[in-house]
């Protein structure tokens, strides 16, 4: 297997694992890729970056055999290959760990690892003992302990990723592609994943790492390739990049201030007061206040209770004890209709599952929460509705060919702007944003940051739940830290450091 592969090459991880040259791909009315080159070296981590729509997903799907290429060549081991389907790609040693993990939740870990190639005993039956033993050996090789007999659906996302990586080793993969692998991981789980990635490169495996997160690229990557609008922009060793040059390659312009939050201006009256709130699910005696014009950031590791708090304070999840007031008015009855009427809205972390109506247009999605303002005698005044929506499209610079465009066809950043505008149409006092930049590229992130800063400066109270330390420190006026459903610390921005925030998160 991989150890023998390295030995044959004299113990040196040199040369190309795969070479893709002049790759082109067209869809009806769209040039997805044009003249794209990508060369992955054995035993190295190669990051692939670009804004949403840059062509990253199309390129890795061509590598995985999901899409056929329309132009260009792919070479592995000095010979050109076709990669006409995923089975051929796997046979060539290419394993893609997609963002949506493709495991059978009802199967055990071992069954998933050997799904395509179960070891068979003498009588022709599956050798279950051998499957479990070989699975355990694979986990030992990558330095991660997972029970081969565990039901896969019961595992956290981080361990399911390890199962996918073990599957790659079981197929003797020479190229492992990871698509946004840390989108649902805690900082500790990210550190463990990076340790496993380094184990893979020690085995001579080439790792293609697809992400939006700049800090991760500088920590784990040896080389980075940037795509923009379906074209190859640059391939450089990571040591030749700074954050600024990488952003400039990705979006074609400089971002002078990614976090524009101004400090020290006077805050207004208390906009949201939460006292002693507890829920059956997670929260335990949570109390805090946020003032008009303030950004209060919440941080916590996975399971700390941030999302549960976000849903409770807008009236979505029931509370067992405590009180919530918006601008001095109690949230009673405790439901979303009352919350919206008082002027509090939620930008959910799951924008596609809980926020957007994917088969409706930009206009229909944006005006959904404010139709009453455009209605007369039970009928919607479409002229007023359209004018209001167009105003927010212009104000927020939503990139859409028309207001009738289906929302599912917009990028993640533009979808997020539509959801934010939906709530502001109602006239808010407080906006709760849960992971506002999840799955959004750096260019769109800068625009979302600027919008939140602008809204706070206009007097809106912003409660921001995030697992991204840079945006927590860059946008918040104060930072509250949660662990096991409780607030364990509150820091003024000037006193907050990554170290004391993480210490409070594991308290």
From TrEMBL:
It comes from the Bacteria. Keywords: ATP-binding, Cell membrane, Membrane, Nucleotide-binding, Repeat, Sugar transport, Translocase, Transport. The keyword Nucleotide-binding applies. InterPro entries: AAA+_ATPase (IPR003593), ABC_carbohydrate_import_ATPase (IPR050107), ABC_transporter-like_ATP-bd (IPR003439), ABC_transporter-like_CS (IPR017871), P-loop_NTPase (IPR027417). GO terms for cellular component: plasma membrane. It is found in: Cell membrane. It is a peripheral membrane protein. Coiled coil: none annotated. It holds the Pfam family ABC_tran. Residues 18-254, 253-507 form the ABC transporter domain. GO terms for molecular function: ATP binding; ATP hydrolysis activity. SUPFAM superfamilies: P-loop containing nucleoside triphosphate hydrolases (SSF52540). Belongs to the ABC transporter superfamily. This is D-xylose ABC transporter ATP-binding protein.
């Amino acid at each position: 297997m991989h150890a023998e592969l390295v030995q044959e090459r004299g113990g040196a991880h040199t040369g190309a694992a795969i070479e893709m040259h002049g790759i082109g791909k067209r869809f009806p009315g769209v040039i997805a890729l044009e003249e794209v080159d990508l060369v992955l070296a054995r035993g190295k981590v190669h990051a692939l970056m670009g804004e949403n729509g840059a062509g990253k997903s199309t390129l890795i799907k061509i590598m995985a055999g999901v899409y056929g290429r329309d132009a260009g060549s792919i070479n592995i081991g000095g010979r050109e290959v076709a990669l006409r389907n995923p089975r051929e790609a796997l046979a060539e040693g290419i394993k893609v760990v997609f963002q949506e993990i493709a495991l059978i939740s009802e199967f055990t870990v071992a069954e998933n690892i050997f799904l395509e190639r179960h070891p068979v005993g003498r009588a022709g039956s599956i050798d279950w003992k051998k499957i479990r033993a070989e699975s355990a050996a694979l986990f030992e090789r990558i330095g991660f302990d997972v029970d081969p007999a565990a039901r896969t659906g019961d595992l956290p996302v981080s361990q399911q990723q390890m199962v996918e990586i073990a599957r790659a080793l079981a197929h003797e993969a020479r190229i492992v592609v990871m698509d946004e692998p840390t989108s649902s991981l805690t900082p500790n789980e990210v550190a463990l994943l990076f340790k496993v990635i380094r184990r893979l490169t020690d085995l001579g495996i080439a790792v293609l790492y697809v992400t939006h997160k700049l800090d991760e690229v500088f920590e784990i990557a040896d080389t980075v390739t940037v795509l923009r609008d379906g074209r190859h922009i640059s391939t450089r060793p990571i040591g030749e990049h700074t954050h600024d040059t990488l952003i400039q390659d990705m979006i074609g312009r400089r971002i002078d201030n990614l976090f524009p939050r101004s400090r020290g201006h006077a805050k207004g009256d208390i906009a949201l007061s939460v006292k002693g709130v507890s829920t059956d699910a997670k929260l335990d005696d949570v109390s805090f206040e946020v003032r008009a014009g303030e950004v209060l950031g919440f941080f916590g590791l996975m399971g700390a209770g941030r999302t549960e708090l976000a849903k409770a304070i807008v009236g979505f999840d029931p509370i067992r004890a405590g009180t919530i007031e918006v601008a001095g008015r109690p949230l009673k009855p405790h439901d979303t209709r009352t919350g919206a009427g008082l002027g509090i809205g939620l930008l959910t972390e799951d924008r596609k599952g809980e926020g957007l109506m994917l088969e409706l247009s930009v206009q229909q999605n944006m005006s959904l929460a404010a139709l009453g303002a455009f209605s007369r005698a039970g009928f919607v005044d479409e002229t007023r509705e359209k004018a209001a929506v167009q105003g927010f499209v212009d104000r927020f610079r939503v990139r859409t060919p028309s207001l009738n465009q289906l929302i599912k066809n917009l990028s993640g950043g533009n979808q997020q702007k539509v959801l934010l505008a939906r709530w502001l149409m109602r006239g808010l006092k407080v906006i709760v944003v849960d992971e506002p930049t999840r799955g959004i590229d750096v260019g769109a992130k800068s625009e979302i940051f600027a919008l939140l800063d602008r809204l706070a400066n206009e007097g809106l109270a912003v409660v921001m739940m995030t697992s991204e330390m840079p945006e927590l420190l860059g946008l918040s006026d104060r930072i509250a830290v949660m662990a096991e459903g409780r607030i364990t610390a509150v820091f003024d921005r000037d006193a907050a450091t990554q170290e004391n925030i993480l210490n409070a998160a594991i308290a």
